[in-house]
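<discrete_fold_record>
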Amino acid sequence: MTDTFAVPHIPRINEPAPEVTAKSTHGMIKLSDYTAKGKWIMLFSHPADFTPVCTTEFVEFARLTPEFEKRNVQLVGNSIDSVYSHIAWVRNIEEKFSVKIKFPLIADLDQKVARAFGMVHEAVSDTATVRAVFFIDPKNTIRALLYYPMSLGRNTDELLRVVDALQTADANSCATPANWHVGDAVIVPAPATQADAEKRAGGAPGMEVTEWYLSKRKL
């Protein structure tokens, strides 16, 4: 007989982020309190404290915290470990790797946060969270989400790039091409009418026009 697993509910892009009030290493926190202050949130889960891959990730999250802060992003971690386990692990990381963990880490013992965000995938584990990342904007809207298996550590530079791309698109009504980084040209919205497409195909000031539907410009 084939085992069946419940399909986790995963909030989707452009949906409101689930409301979360939870105990953390910084006391009780409410995610919407951050967005109410105009902050972005990067909510991420890890399988367990005191594990090797997760430790390397937290070292990198700590290293890049100032860069996220420059972009008005609040980092928030989550796993099903207790707050005491979190505190002990954070202190151990800070001692062994000479970094400072400045962001809160939710103690999600009852899995309320993990279940609300679809972080527990039963085909992997009934309890441990997979490596999920949710980007939430100041309107409390989910803008992007990423999932990784337990064996794969996340690329923190890529997570920072996602933030840069989302914020750049919002500020400039544009899109960003593959492998885009800050300073690269962005993609201009394609024309919506045949007449405008013909005009665009003939070239446009300040734009690099490859084809009527693909044009770039420097910011």
Remarks:
- Helices lie at 31-36, 52-70, 83-97, 112-116, 156-172, 194-201.
- The longest helix spans residues 52-70.
